What we know:
Blueprint: H1 38-58, H2 75-80, H3 82-85, E1 89-101, E2 105-113, E3 127-136, E4 149-164, E5 167-181
Parallel strand pairs: 3-5
Antiparallel strand pairs: 1-2, 1-4, 2-3, 4-5
Amino acid sequence: MSQTQAPGFDPQRPVSPSNPLQPTGPEPEPAPDGGYSLRAVAPTLVLVLVGALVGCAGTIPEPIRDPGTTTALGVSEVQADPKRSIGVRVRWGGTIISVTNRERSTQIEVLARALDRDGAPRSGSSADGRFIAEVAGFLDPAEYPKDRELTVVGIITGVQTRAVGDYPYVYPVVQAEARYLWPEPQPAPVYPGPWFGPWYDPWWGPWYGPPGFRGRPWYW
């Protein structure tokens, strides 16, 4: 059965409660090609873009969420020209090599790696050198074990030269104002196959005999 609409009635426009045939909303602005005009969809686009930016920022843990930092400056660049890098605020991360407790601070030696969008060291990425994250106060080395992933935010204060084997290695030093120790990755669960269980016997079948039988089939 076909339905008849009143002339000029637009079902997409809001209507008056007292008179359903009388629209109350503004007339939609027609586009030259019959679609939506840019002015009509602009507010929606703005909301979508803002939501996307907030979503991206929300994935970075709060302690290291600092818009004033940069990751464009790498460890190797600081090693090449330390004086130009002093005072630059960076967000660096990688895997822990060692922890040294000093009288009033703790120095964490880190093997730097590129960071993902959430600020985590990128798994499988090549190393970008070593740096030292200096943290005020005492940190227990047991809580910052070797190979754990760490991201810090802070200011480059200079460099230190330490021996790596017999090689004098230049370490950029970051005065870490914030840090985030990433949780250890959990192994993926392993589910047994549908045919395995306490009573499963791969030799059980009409030609092999009862479970546990290891003799030859009858036709051998």
